[in-house]
Amino acid sequence: MSADSAELPAEAESSPYLTLGAAVACISVGSILVRLAHAPALAVAFYRIFLATLLLAAFALPALVRSWRGLSRAQVAALLGAGVALGIHFATWIASLSFTSVAASVLLVNMAPLFTLLLARIVLGERVSRAVRVAMTLAVGGAVLIAVGDWAGGSLLGDGLALAGAVTLSLYHVAGRGLRQALPLPAYVLGVWGTAALTIALIALFAHVPLGGYAPRTLGVFLALAVVPTLLGHGLVNRSLRRLPAPTVGLFLLGEPVLASLLAYAVFGERPGAWALAGGAVILGALAVVTAEGR
Fold first, then answer.
1. Residue 206 is part of which domain span?
2. 181 with 99: CB under 8 angstroms?
3. Are 172 and 14 in contact (CB under 8 A)?
4. Cα-Cα-Cα-Cα dihedral sign, residues 277, 147, 42, 164
5. Cα distance between residue 251 and residue 194, in whole Å
6. In whole angstroms, what separates CA 87 from the centre of its chain?
7. Distance in angstroms between the alpha carbons of the first and the last residue of the chain
8. Are 229 and 256 within 8 A, CB to CB?
9. Within 152-254, where are the H helices?
10. Which residues of 92-119 are buried (b: 16+ CB within 10 A; e: fewer)?
11. Of 33, 62, 118, 164, which residue is least crowded by CB atoms under 10 Å?
12. Cα(240)–Cα(85) distance, integer angstroms
């Protein structure tokens, strides 16, 4: 997200769709890099967000320090809650890639917008249209199709972890509502990412997962995760939102599960099964309806 403040080349500025396409490509690489790290999921999650936080802090820390004094206790609690939710999101979703396919994991975690709408309805009392309610039902059906396909392969744990990642990502979105207006974007992101890194570190401590002693190659993959899908990917999404409607950006982001699945096939020879393809088609269709309703 921090790349939101960076200057892009003139040719990228001339086409917001080029920027958005680059964002989707950067984000789609994330699941591949997780697999290439060959490290415990909690260590991968920690270094991804911790290194991104360090890189962002170089210019976002002064803004966070200036803004912190003006936050109310409720806003501080919301910021910390959003960070904890984000940390658990990274921990559960990255762990899911050890137990299920890239296609199933990325498809299921991308159901987060549906859970966000549901939570906003329950917690904030926001209305949900009939089309969105139908889309939610369809998405659940798509998730069931993926689970049916994974039943025989013993990958249900991975599916459950990916869904947990979707739910906690939606909690992060709901908890952070309103804070983007109270804080400059870099300050908000730094506060949330720093809390997320601390959350993962504490989980790793209690789980006895080492956070040190990794080979230079693994550390290089950790750094790539922090830079490519985290800083660049989400930063370019924020830049795209300045020039394109949110529904357009959302529809483009539905390309992540497709591109990630293609990359998994090219790099690992991982081919999604028929159940995953069917469930994925249903979920993507449901998410497209929800994104269109966002107008």
1. 2-6+15-293
2. no
3. no
4. positive
5. 29
6. 11
7. 23
8. no
9. 156-175, 179-182, 185-206, 216-225, 234-243, 246-253
10. bbbbbbebbbbbbbbbbbbbbbbbbbbb
11. 62
12. 25
Give the total residue count for the chain. 295
pLDDT of residue 150: 66
Residue 112 in tokens: 């987060």
Tokens representing residue 60 in the block? 């976002």
In b/e form, how buried is each residue of 130-149, taking b as 16+ CB within 10 angstroms?
eebeebbebbeebbebbbeb
For 238-283, write each residue's pLDDT tens digit: 778 777 776 667 777 888 888 898 898 899 998 877 878 888 888 8
Instruction: Give the residue from 207, 202, 102 showing the smallest Cα distance to 162.
Output: 102
Kindly state the helix (H) or strand (E) to which residue 86 belongs, with its residue range. helix 73-96
Distance CA 204, CA 27 (A): 25
Helices 30-37 and 41-68: angle between axes, nearest 10 degrees:
120
Phi, psi of 264 (to 5 degrees): -65, -35
User: Which range among 1-5, 49-53, 281-285 has the greatest average pLDDT?
Assistant: 49-53
Q: Residue type at 71? A: L
**At which residue do the structure tokens 């660049």 appear?**
232
Amino acid at 216: P
Structure tokens, 159: 């599916």
pLDDT in tens, 59-89: 889 888 888 888 889 999 999 999 999 999 9
Structural domain count of the chain: 1
CA distance 56 to 72: 24
Tell me which H or E stretch contains 244.
Answer: none
Q: What is the pTM assigned to this prediction?
A: 0.86
Find, among 253, 240, 247, the residue nearest to 295 by Cα.
247
Token code pair at residue 47? 């270094």
